[in-house]
């Protein structure tokens, strides 16, 4: 009998043990012809993997930095064949490995979950959908609306290109070992038109500058762009958390006039 994989604190591993929750996460994928490949990040002992392999709409590949998990998966999921990648997702070249569109799923390690989202954002042209588990605070931040205290850089940048749905909350008791916080499952579905009607590089810069000094009004937070005379006075008196994606895109266009 195989020895179960030992959860490693430095990798942020908390293995999901509830099969019903695992099925809810897997069933939240909506490939519907948008993609026929799925990449699972951090499969651990494969509670999601087993269910993913049941679906013939897509081919499943898994990636894990943990050698012990990779060895377990090789022993227990021969159907994966050569689709078990032993690598760090944050350094993984999505475009080199996958030639077409790919959906992403996972019970994501909490210590790198924001970095995973930023990487997906970087590869948004190839990733039409992501669904998975995050620390509840992160999940809520991603889905937050303008005006919320949790609304921030991650909220605006992801919502610029993806429609985001908070699906459900998961309590600590269904993990081994149990985390000290609750978890949240969200789905990101790329917008049909996911290009911005403004300079995207400047848009990213403006959003980050505005939230990096979120207690300041836009007049002060964006002072390096000399916004006076380009942006309405009423807008300059607002703080970043009051602005929608559309507002930030409008500001970006106006800064270039």
Give unreliable regions as ranges: none
Total domains, how many? 2
Number of helices: 11
Mean pLDDT: 94
Radius of gyration: 20 Å
The strand count comes to: 9
Q: What is the 3D form?
A: elongated
Query: Looking across the biggest beta sheet, what order are the strands in?
Result: 4-3-2-5-6-9-7
Measured between the Cα atoms of the first and last residue, the distance is: 68 Å
| H-E string | EHEHEHEHEHEHHEEEHHHH
Could you say what the CATH architecture of the largest domain is?
3-Layer(aba) Sandwich
CATH H-level name of the largest domain... which superfamily? Vaccinia Virus protein VP39
Main structural class: alpha/beta
Beta-strand content estimate:
15-25%
What is the third-level CATH name, the topology of the largest domain? Rossmann fold
Largest sheet: 7 strands, mixed
CATH domain class name of the largest domain: Alpha Beta
Helix content: 25-40%
Give the helices and strands, then pairings:
Layout: E1 15-16, H1 19-27, E2 37-41, H2 47-52, E3 59-64, H3 67-76, E4 84-86, H4 94-97, E5 103-107, H5 113-122, E6 129-135, H6 136-143, H7 153-161, E7 162-170, E8 175-176, E9 183-190, H8 200-212, H9 218-221, H10 233-236, H11 245-255
Parallel strand pairs: 2-3, 2-5, 3-4, 5-6
Antiparallel strand pairs: 1-8, 6-9, 7-9
Helix pairs in contact: 5-7, 8-11
Task: Kindly summarize this structure in a few lines.
The chain is an alpha/beta fold. It is 34% helix and 18% strand. The chain folds into two domains: 182 residues, Vaccinia Virus protein VP39 (Rossmann fold), CATH 3.40.50; 56 residues, rRNA adenine dimethylase, C-terminal domain (Helicase, Ruva Protein, domain 3).
């Amino acid at each position: 009998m195989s020895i179960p994989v030992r959860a490693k604190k430095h990798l942020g591993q908390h293995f999901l043990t509830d099969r019903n929750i695992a099925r809810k996460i897997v069933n939240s994928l909506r490939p519907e012809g948008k993609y026929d490949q799925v990449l699972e990040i951090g499969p651990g002992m494969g509670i999601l993997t087993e269910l993913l392999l049941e679906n013939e709409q897509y081919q499943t590949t898994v990636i894990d930095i943990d050698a012990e998990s990779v060895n377990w998966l090789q022993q227990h999921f021969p159907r994966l064949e050569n689709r078990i990648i032993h690598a760090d997702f944050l350094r993984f070249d999505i475009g080199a490995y996958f030639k077409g569109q790919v959906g992403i799923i996972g019970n994501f390690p909490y210590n790198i979950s924001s970095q995973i989202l930023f990487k997906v954002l970087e590869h948004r042209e190839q990733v039409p959908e992501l669904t998975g588990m995050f620390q509840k605070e992160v999940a809520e931040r991603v889905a937050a609306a303008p005006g919320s205290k949790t609304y921030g850089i991650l909220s605006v940048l992801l919502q610029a290109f993806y429609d985001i749905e908070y699906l459900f909350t998961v309590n600590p008791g269904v993990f081994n070992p149990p985390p000290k916080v609750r978890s949240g499952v969200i789905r990101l579905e790329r917008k049909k038109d996911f290009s911005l009607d403004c300079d995207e590089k400047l848009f990213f810069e403006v959003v980050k500058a505005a939230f990096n000094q979120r207690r300041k009004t836009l007049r002060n937070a964006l002072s390096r762009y000399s916004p006076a005379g380009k942006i309405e006075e009423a807008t300059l008196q607002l703080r970043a958390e009051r602005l929608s994606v559309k507002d930030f895109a409008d500001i970006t266009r106006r800064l270039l006039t």
